[in-house]
Automatic annotation (TrEMBL), chain A:
Topology of the protein relative to the lipid bilayer: Multi-pass membrane protein
Compositionally biased intervals (Low complexity): 1-13, 348-366
Subcellular location as annotated: Cell membrane
Species: Klenkia sesuvii
Predominant location: membrane
Record's protein name: ABC transporter permease
This protein's record includes keyword Acetylation: no
This protein's record includes keyword Transmembrane: yes
Lineage: Bacteria, Bacillati, Actinomycetota, Actinomycetes, Geodermatophilales
TrEMBL record, chain B:
SMART domains noted in UniProt: AAA (SM00382)
Keyword Transport (UniProt): yes
CDD domains tied to this protein: ABC_Carb_Monos_I, ABC_Carb_Monos_II
Pfam families: ABC_tran (PF00005)
ABC transporter domain boundaries: 6-242, 257-500
Originating species: Klenkia sesuvii
Protein name (record): Sugar ABC transporter ATP-binding protein
KW Glycoprotein (keyword) present: no
PANTHER family noted in UniProt: CARBOHYDRATE TRANSPORT ATP-BINDING PROTEIN MG119-RELATED (PTHR43790), GALACTOFURANOSE TRANSPORTER ATP-BINDING PROTEIN YTFR (PTHR43790:SF9)
Record's keyword terms, sorted: ATP-binding, Nucleotide-binding, Repeat, Transport
Gene Ontology molecular function terms on file: ATP binding
């Protein structure tokens, strides 16, 4: 964990290494609280500036519906990033999956059988593309950034070739009807997002798969020497991310009634931004699904408030940039403060033999 | 004053809730090697940070050549001529040697850098250090750890350092490199430079030190002891507050070799590292691997464990052949490794103790893939109690533990798995003298429970004291395979030095 990625805050003394990684992210609860507060402030601003237009059930559902697609992809992205990787190809995979699932051939086949076939196709395409990412990264030893950047270019290109740069209309009315529904008054897309988030949370926090993800991202070498099959696990993480892209493609197909090679453009940046402000460490080993979901909601609520106030999307983009930096800065401060409060335990003054703090200096940074 | 270059009196440094230094005295004369001893957490690191200007003391005074000074920041210390070479070298890998030496003080004329001048000056410094073979233009990342240390030294000299603090410089060096380092240190002190030398290895202090200061629990317990004459026992008891009676546990009384072997290593070759190594280890036996750095001892362990794929040969556990180059299958067969670099290779430092302990046994706590955290913590607690691992709180982050307790976390991981073959690479590196005997006792207790143990150590007395049988390695080959009590330190050294396989049998040795 000595990767000096967080060189940003040059602590008041010459020991940047101690302030890195793990320490920054102690209890997730406290930081999620910060995100909740940010979301509340946004809502207050929304209510003050837009009144009932913001604080209506309809608008709330609109926000959630808009958050759903990014949200699903961000859950997959959270796994990849906690596992020490990055997936830049998600937007392109959404496009490719949506196009593949809406080709004439697929739709004709679905017509003869069931629209579930389209869903299956999208998931399969996403999953296989994720598998390619994973194999290239884990076994080809390519840097994740490069491998998925290449996939970004290639997948969108392939989507364009398949679609011949045309927008493909979803013909199946049953498909559209199913996803346009609102069981219990909540849109199906929001249900899907909620389901993916809950499953993601359980997978990350309650299963061996989740624990191994943290281990692989936190210290891949230690994980390997502890007997974890790191390469296989890495592949699984990218497959998982690819499948969430397939799910997101289905959701976009339902929302826009089309499959298109332009779907999901820049989705990767939204997803990474949500994951990062959600408190997941970009170097891996630390992160939460709850933080990611809050991150997605914050961005969507922000854009909703701006739209309701007739502010341009350019202003939105600026605000988004400011929020990303502010959120990460705040997280670092909070984490640093917590570290200091906890540190007394770390070094008891009467350091008996067998006492505290490893071979490295056993003293907290001031 | 008797010409003290540096005097520190009653230095107190408090961090929120912690009194890291509670009145430390240190005085260093020009031209001496002053050894600073103390266990981990005793306050050595804080003290040298105060000396480097990185920490401000709350109380106490620092005198430099008799004058009272305040070291408000690292630059202030540098200006006085105090240079610190940290354990984790603070060099920029991507820059050249010369660039590193003059980093922050680049030589320039009219705003343009003068690489040739910097390289000349650097070359001269390296020559003075007796390492003219290090080329000023080389990228630092391409150098060995020893050479990098020399670059740090050159940087210190380029700042006209009068006092150089070296924090465990020998930790990353092999014996020969340590010898060369000592030669450099002696040259420097002959020029009147003072060196504050920190090391865990007492024998080094005998070789190179002039005087010793021992600190314990943030206070000086002894200062100005003669390095050559003070008995080891006295130094250890000053550091630990108690004399160590039996460092090594009693060997098992029975002859372990009669049992059928549990671990069999057959003609394993890893090109460039290990040449046709074969050995067996019986249950309850501790096999020691002795040899210098680069003798292939760690690579043997890695090959057995599957962390390194051997070109030829096979490894069998209880008669079943392990898949070569596959750690997971070795772990499944009951093999465990405590690697050399505990922090980077074994531990998730930011994770709680229990997660580190259960990492290799997750399946045991899972039903259908779902983990029982309560079960994990319960099992971890049992292990920490059995190993006397402090603190008992299994939610504590592993990074806050001492080296000895971190090692116990790694051991607990394999105990929890009921591993039958335990491979230990430098099990006491970074572990205090006091905690070492605990680790030794633990290893012996494991063997007594029927575990086959292989121990690698660069400290020959450790191998001889701990193991039942010793394999001496050099250049990847087995030079000797004998009972530990049939060997002494000199014989091992002779074997290692001559470097050619001797086909002596146990009878010859006895």
């Amino acid at each position: 964990m000595s990767t000096p990625t967080t060189k940003a805050p040059p602590a008041t003394d010459a020991r940047p290494r101690r302030t890195t990684a793990g320490g920054l992210l102690s209890g997730p609860a406290g930081r999620n609280m910060g995100l909740v507060i940010a979301l509340v402030i946004l809502c207050v601003v929304g209510i003050v500036t837009a009144g009932d237009r913001f604080a209506s059930t309809d608008n709330l559902l609109t926000i959630l519906r808009l958050a759903a697609v990014t949200g699903v992809v961000s859950v997959g992205m959270t796994f990849v990033i906690i596992g020490g990787g990055i997936d830049l190809s998600v937007g392109a995979l959404v496009a490719l999956s949506s196009v593949w699932a809406t080709t004439l051939a697929t739709q004709a086949l679905a017509q003869d059988t069931h629209w579930v076939l389209m869903v299956g196709t999208a998931l399969l395409v996403g999953g296989v593309a994720g598998l390619v990412n994973g194999v290239v990264i884990a076994y080809g030893k390519l840097v994740a950034f490069i491998a998925t950047l290449a996939m970004l270019a290639a997948a969108r290109g392939l989507a364009e070739i398949i679609a011949n740069r045309r927008t493909q209309i979803v013909q199946d009315q049953d498909f559209l009807r199913f996803f346009a529904g609102s069981p219990l008054g909540v849109p199906t897309l929001v249900w899907i997002f909620a389901l993916v988030a809950v499953l993601g949370w359980v997978l990350l926090n309650r299963t061996t798969f989740g624990r191994r993800t943290f281990a692989v991202g936190g210290n891949a070498e230690a994980a390997r020497l502890a007997g974890i099959r790191v390469q296989r696990h890495t592949v699984a993480l990218y497959v998982l991310s690819g499948i969430t892209c397939g799910i997101a493609a289905v959701m976009l197909m339902a929302r826009t009634t089309t499959g298109s090679s332009t779907h999901g453009t820049l989705l990767e940046l939204d997803a990474i931004a949500a994951v990062v402000i959600g408190g997941t460490l970009l170097v891996g080993g630390r992160g939460t699904i709850v933080g990611t979901v809050l991150g997605v909601l914050i961005f969507t609520a922000l854009s909703n408030v701006f739209t309701l106030n007739n502010l341009s999307s350019s202003a939105q983009a600026v605000a988004k940039g400011v929020i990303i930096v502010a959120a990460v800065l705040l997280q670092q401060r909070v984490a640093a403060g917590r570290r200091q409060r906890r540190s007394p335990k770390a070094v008891p003054p009467t350091a008996a033999e067998g006492g505290p703090a490893g071979a490295s200096p056993g003293v907290p940074a001031p | 004053m008797n010409g003290a270059l540096l005097e520190m009196r009653g230095i107190v440094k408090t961090f929120p809730g912690v009194r890291a230094l509670g009145g430390v005295d240190l005085d260093v004369r020009a031209g001496e090697v002053h050894c600073l001893l103390g266990q981990n957490g005793a306050g050595k690191s804080t003290l040298i940070k105060v000396l480097a200007g990185a920490h401000q003391p709350d109380e106490g005074e620092i005198r430099w050549q008799g004058e009272r000074v305040r070291l408000t920041d690292p630059q202030a210390a540098m200006r006085l001529g105090i240079a610190t070479i940290y354990q984790e070298l603070d060099l920029v890998d991507g820059l050249s040697v010369a660039d590193n030496v003059f980093l922050g003080r680049e030589r320039s004329r009219f705003g343009l850098s003068r690489p040739a001048a910097a390289q000349r000056a650097t070359g001269a410094l390296l020559e003075r250090l007796g390492h003219p073979e290090i080329r000023p233009g080389t990228e630092v990342g391409a150098l060995s750890a020893a050479s990098q240390q020399m670059v740090s030294m050159a940087r210190a000299l380029s700042q006209d350092a009068r006092l150089i603090v070296m924090d465990e410089p020998s930790a990353v060096l092999d014996n020969e490199e340590v010898e060369r380092l000592f030669a450099v240190v002696r040259d420097l002190t002959a020029d009147g430079v003072a060196v504050v030398y920190i090391s865990h290895r007492l024998e080094e202090i005998r070789q190179v030190g002039d005087r010793i200061t021992v600190i314990k629990d943030g206070a000086t317990v002894a200062t100005g002891l003669p390095a050559q004459e003070t008995p080891t026992r006295e130094v250890i008891s000053l550091m630990t507050g108690r004399a160590i009676e039996y460092v090594f546990p009693q060997r098992a009384g029975r002859s372990a070799t009669t049992a059928p072997p549990l671990l069999e290593v057959d003609h394993v070759t890893v090109p460039g590292h290990v040449e046709d190594v074969s050995f067996t280890v019986a249950p309850g036996e501790i096999l020691g691997l002795a040899g210098l750095v680069g003798s292939g001892r760690s690579e043997v362990l890695e090959a057995v464990y599957g962390a390194r794929r051997p070109a030829t040969g096979q490894v069998r556990v209880d008669g079943a052949r392990l898949r070569p180059g596959d750690v997971a299958s070795a772990v499944a067969a009951g093999v465990g490794l405590a690697p050399e670099e505990r922090k980077s290779q074994a531990l998730l430092l930011g994770d709680p103790i229990y997660r580190n302990i259960t990492l290799s046994s997750l399946a045991r706590f899972a039903r259908g893939g779902f983990l029982s955290v309560r079960g994990e913590k319960q099992a971890a607690r049992e292990q920490t109690e059995a190993l006397d691992l402090r603190p008992v709180d299994v939610d504590r982050e592993v990074r806050t533990l001492s080296g000895g307790n971190q090692q116990k976390v790694v051991l607990a991981r394999w105990l929890l798995r009921d591993c039958r073959v335990l491979l230990l690479d430098e099990p006491t590196r970074g572990v205090d003298v006091g905690a070492r005997s605990e680790i030794y006792a633990l290893i012996r207790a494991l063997a007594d429970r029927g575990v086959a143990v292989v121990v690698v150590s660069s400290e020959i007395p450790e191998v001889l004291g701990l193991a039942d049988r010793v394999l001496v390695l050099a250049e990847g080959r087995v030079l000797a395979d004998r009972p530990a009590d049939a060997l002494d330190e000199h014989q091992v050294l002779d074997l290692v030095m001559q470097g050619t396989p001797t086909h002596t049998t146990e009878d010859d040795a006895a």
